[in-house]
Amino acid sequence: MRTLIKYLIHPTILVIYMTIAYKFYAQVHPFLLLLSLVLINLTFLWFLEWLIPFKKKWKMDKKGFLVNLKYFGINAAADSLGKLSAIFIAMKLTAGTVDLPLYYSVPLAVIALEFFGYWIHRSTHQDGLLWRVHSIHHTPNKIFTWNNNKMHPLNIVLLKIGRLTSLIVIGFSAETIFLATTFALLQNYISHVNADIRGGLLSYIIGTPELHRLHHSTNREEALNYSAVIPYWDMIFGTFLNQQEVESIGVHNPEDYPNEIKQELLFPFRKGV
């Protein structure tokens, strides 16, 4: 029974979150609704990490909390910039041509935004400027919910503009875009959870923590699974890997990367890197 519960936790909380998002979309300001869901999600995931940790040595300590809190604050500004840019593009380009029921349009929007998210993410794993921007997210040697925030602001803006612009140009409605991006954001946090929840067959439908831990592996042959939301594009383009264990997390040459926030923010622009 306990094992079954571990398989059911992930899909159950997603269904609950998306039901709340759908039911309250017209009654609560979207910003407040999304913020509430993020906080509920974080609280529950932290509880799981305390109750059933995947690896005890990966537990969040005080230092890890404070470092990622700083990134959370910094990236709130970057996140807003990305949304403002998307709104501006929406005003100029959206045609609102996709007129489908939400149970069709939201899954299609998730698939579309992850197509662009997949290729943006995959491109940031090539040597050069984009990797230097993205590498900050990979420097921690353990993975837990809160260090999903450890990302360079430029990385946030790049992903937001790329993903949201695609949905706007296609012509999805505002409600569809809200529900699809809410699902993606909540999924990203869940994929980083350091809790012993199981994927099983679910790993072929959505991005489970088992899949995303491999993406953070120091072994480059394992560091695939570029989408933390849905695995379909990884399957199609040959970057899907599904196995139980990952030996070590982080970058394979940590001595080449800074470990202080100011230097991390400047790292992409350093000469001779």
Automatic annotation (TrEMBL):
<dbReference type="Pfam" id="PF04116">
    <property type="entry name" value="FA_hydroxylase"/>
</dbReference>
<feature type="transmembrane region" description="Helical">
    <location>
        <begin position="102"/>
        <end position="120"/>
    </location>
</feature>
<keyword id="KW-1133">Transmembrane helix</keyword>
<dbReference type="GO" id="GO:0005506">
    <property type="term" value="F:iron ion binding"/>
</dbReference>
<feature type="transmembrane region" description="Helical">
    <location>
        <begin position="164"/>
        <end position="186"/>
    </location>
</feature>
<feature type="transmembrane region" description="Helical">
    <location>
        <begin position="7"/>
        <end position="25"/>
    </location>
</feature>
<dbReference type="InterPro" id="IPR050307">
    <property type="entry name" value="Sterol_Desaturase_Related"/>
</dbReference>
<feature type="transmembrane region" description="Helical">
    <location>
        <begin position="31"/>
        <end position="52"/>
    </location>
</feature>
<dbReference type="GO" id="GO:0016020">
    <property type="term" value="C:membrane"/>
</dbReference>
<keyword id="KW-0812">Transmembrane</keyword>
<dbReference type="GO" id="GO:0016491">
    <property type="term" value="F:oxidoreductase activity"/>
</dbReference>
<dbReference type="InterPro" id="IPR006694">
    <property type="entry name" value="Fatty_acid_hydroxylase"/>
</dbReference>
<feature type="domain" description="Fatty acid hydroxylase">
    <location>
        <begin position="107"/>
        <end position="239"/>
    </location>
</feature>
<keyword id="KW-0472">Membrane</keyword>
<protein>
    <recommendedName>
        <fullName>Fatty acid hydroxylase domain-containing protein</fullName>
    </recommendedName>
</protein>
<dbReference type="GO" id="GO:0008610">
    <property type="term" value="P:lipid biosynthetic process"/>
</dbReference>
